[in-house]
Amino acid sequence: MLAIASVFLAPIAAAIGYTSYKGRQFEATCPNIGELTDIGGYRLNALHIAAPETADLPPLIFIHGASGNLLDQVGAFLQPLHGRAEMLFIDRPGHGYSERGGPENALPSGQADAIAKLMEKRGIKRAIVVGHSFGGAIAAAFGVRHPEKTEGLLFLAPATHPWPGGIDWYYYLAAMPVLGWLFTHAIVVPLGLQRLERATTNVFRPNPCPADYVAKTGPTLVLRPHAFYNNAVDCTRLLAYLKAHSPQYSRITAPTVIITGDSDDIVWEHIHSQGLARDIAGSELVKIRGLGHKPDYVVTDVAVAAMEKIGGAARDLQAAARQAERRLVHQQGAQPTEPAAPCEELTPPVAT
Question: Bridge partners of 46?
Fold first, then answer.
């Protein structure tokens, strides 16, 4: 009997050991560039760029999407905005190098509150909050719950409204008791590494993915068991949360811009971005033909122009969008695509 048990247990033990080894390797390859700050019983990690003397923009706070970490938004915006603003790039609770905190942090509302606490610790009174993908749900919650701290909101391919369908099966499995622990500790790493290149390409599609994106943004950090579990819990609870809380968006009064692409197969713009434009009075929807799910990287200039407009500068974002479309045509060697047909499900759910 013992021999039979060892036949089954030995491969599992080896897989768990491999996961532990690879987790340390992922962290060595992508060490923490931020600083952990206690915000009341747990620590939130963030890269804080102090306000420069040359600042011409309000403070900026960046919130990454699902499966991501602060390096994703650092790679998109740190250099283009150098010397222009105080910036705070945040690892959401339980992601990157941030600790998870209490059960409230499994919801966008709890994560928005955590960011508000970190702002207070950093002495930031008001800021433009920039949320990409899943980070859009948190930015919206922030605008509802902390209007006194909200200078403005910039949504980039946001996931903010209930959608038909579901999410990938492995999120449900990872969030389960017992089986989820075994899955995240023994299977996720080899499965994730096998799918990494394809998943990254899909997130950028139809636009090209930067050659150094994976090396610079550390998406493998989400394959660590605790991070993958937290990410799975976030994703499995998002739909119910949005059904209950998206009707509150009409309370948002801060200047708001939504940048989206008609070719986003990850988060449907006709549900989420158009829903935000409908719900937030005075918001501006900037829809770009031929753009997928990564406006932060593909049309960074339009995103920066939106920050400038929210900050009070005169900017024609629709003209900037048309210019970006012409650039995309040149890059992709084809005419801008017609709006993408809806998928059966939001798959992958709300990726980086």
Answer: 35, 90
